[in-house]
Design brief:
The chain is mainly α and 136 residues long. The protein contains 7 helices and 3 strands; from the N terminus they run H-H-H-H-H-E-H-H-E-E. 60% of the residues lie in helices and 7% in strands. The two termini are 28 Å apart.
Length: 136
């Protein structure tokens, strides 16, 4: 549902990991929200608050990663590599361009060529709308 509502954080940060790190709070809130479910007198406010907190922590973690990348030499190349790693098994160059606003297409192409040379990715088709596949 997060993907459908365009919450991008779940593509880059493992919300499952955050839930596992807060497992006892998750179980507590889920049990409380389930009480009186069959009588339709359940109260889900605690669980919703927990869920929103997980999303908040995910965005906080994502901000840390982006800030870390932006403040290093070669940050644009690292950002492109990070986006490629988060892509599905096959992806288009245009997908990378859409996720890497502010990074020129020649820079993106250079990183893709470098990753190809390192046998991390391989082209499935060529041209402006080339499709690439991950080899790792």
């Amino acid at each position: 549902m997060l993907y459908q509502q365009d919450y991008q954080v779940a593509k880059y940060i493992s919300l499952d990991k955050i839930i596992l790190e807060n497992r006892s709070k998750y179980i507590y809130n889920l049990q409380n929200a389930s009480q009186n479910w069959h009588e339709q007198r359940h109260k889900i406010a605690g669980w919703v608050e927990f869920f929103l907190r997980v999303i908040y922590l995910g965005y906080t973690d994502l901000d840390k990663h982006i800030f870390h990348i932006k403040n290093k030499k070669g940050a644009k190349s690292q950002q492109v590599k990070m986006i490629v790693n988060m892509m599905p098994a096959q992806f288009k160059v245009s997908d990378i361009c859409n996720k890497c606003s502010g990074i020129s297409r020649p820079t993106i192409n250079k990183v893709l060529q470098e990753m190809r040379d390192n046998k991390q990715i391989a082209p499935c088709s060529m041209g402006r709308d080339a499709i690439w596949k991950k080899l790792f």
